[in-house]
């Protein structure tokens, strides 16, 4: 048996209930892990509410880290005692669980399991956004919404290390200060300022090369007005709701813009891609270029409270659930 959060009906945070669940031996190609920590991400909210579809009942969560306690048939690349982490295996909200090895990476020495759990999904998201979706380099000027969020704090430090001018938005003076302490050159308090006007002021009217937007409805289409001609709009989340359908002609009207809606899971779809993305993340952490910040921890049993705080924007940085 294991303790797990189970969603039996879609709805608010109250549908997240801790239950005893049977735990079988790992199957072929799987290992069983005892989890040290589980990452909380907005995608978990999307599944809980039904914005993203899952078959009921289900155990939410995609990100965690722990120690291998048993291996299934045919597993030769992982052994009992290995420290492992993952970012794309459904069912993370559990004390112990089975995971297919295709989702797993080894956690290097010097990186704690808690740090690994806090950064796999968010850190690899920052990796593909800054290095693959758009190749940030010295001279790049970018805008990153939700700069004080889990992805935002990692991305700010990483983009600065890549030589970019990093502009962010945040929703309170406290979050503005936090973002400024984590790589951002300029942070706009969107609760008090017009972020489009401030971006134009900061860039001398030129606009930015790329906008990274995980907010969605509340920042579209105004995010497009922050871009240079032929700039790139990257929509990678919907924390305020999904972006409504729009006429592609809008991209032409606003400067022959490009737009994309990427997902981490397409960037780590093969073993080679997963290892490359994870190793790139581990390297910047071990090289002290990125300090992942764990701001909140909650007992796994209080996953509902953690979701409520996340949705109410009472959290910053990374949140962990501890079994």
From TrEMBL:
Residues 11-321 form the Enoyl reductase (ER) domain. It comes from Shinella pollutisoli. Keywords: NADP, Oxidoreductase. The keyword NADP applies. This is Quinone oxidoreductase family protein. The keyword Oxidoreductase applies. The lineage of its organism: Bacteria, Pseudomonadati, Pseudomonadota, Alphaproteobacteria, Hyphomicrobiales. InterPro entries: ADH-like_C, ADH-like_N, ER, GroES-like_sf, NAD(P)-bd_dom_sf, QOR-like. It holds the Pfam family ADH_zinc_N.
């Amino acid at each position: 048996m294991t303790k797990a959060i189970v969603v039996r009906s879609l709805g608010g945070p109250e549908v997240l209930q801790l239950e005893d669940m049977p735990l079988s031996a790992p199957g072929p190609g799987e290992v069983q892990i005892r989890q040290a920590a589980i990452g909380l991400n907005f995608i978990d909210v999307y599944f809980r509410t039904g914005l993203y579809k899952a078959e009921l009942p289900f155990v939410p969560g995609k990100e965690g880290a722990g120690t291998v306690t048993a291996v299934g048939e045919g597993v030769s690349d992982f052994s009992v005692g290995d420290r492992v982490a993952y970012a794309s295996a459904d069912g993370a909200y559990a004390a112990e669980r089975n995971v297919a090895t295709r989702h797993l990476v080894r956690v290097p020495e010097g990186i704690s399991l808690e740090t690994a759990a806090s950064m796999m999904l968010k850190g690899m998201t920052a990796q593909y956004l800054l290095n693959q979706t758009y190749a940030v380099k010295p001279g790049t000027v970018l805008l990153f919404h939700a700069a004080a969020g889990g992805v935002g704090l990692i991305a700010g430090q990483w983009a600065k290390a890549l030589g970019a001018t990093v502009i962010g938005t945040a929703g309170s003076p406290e979050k503005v200060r936090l973002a400024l302490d984590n790589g951002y050159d300029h942070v706009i308090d969107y609760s008090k300022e017009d972020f489009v006007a401030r971006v134009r002021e900061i860039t001398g009217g030129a606009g930015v090369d790329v906008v990274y937007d995980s907010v969605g409805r509340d920042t579209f289409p105004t995010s497009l007005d922050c871009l240079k001609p032929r700039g790139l709009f990257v929509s990678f989340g919907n924390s305020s709701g999904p972006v409504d359908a729009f006429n592609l002609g809008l991209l032409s009207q606003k400067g022959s813009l490009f737009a994309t809606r990427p997902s981490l899971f397409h960037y780590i779809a093969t073993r080679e891609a997963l290892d490359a993305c994870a190793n790139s993340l581990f390297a910047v952490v071990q090289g002290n270029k990125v300090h992942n910040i764990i701001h909140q921890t909650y007992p796994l049993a209080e996953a509902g409270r953690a979701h409520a705080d996340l949705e109410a924007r009472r959290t910053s940085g990374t949140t962990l659930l501890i079994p």
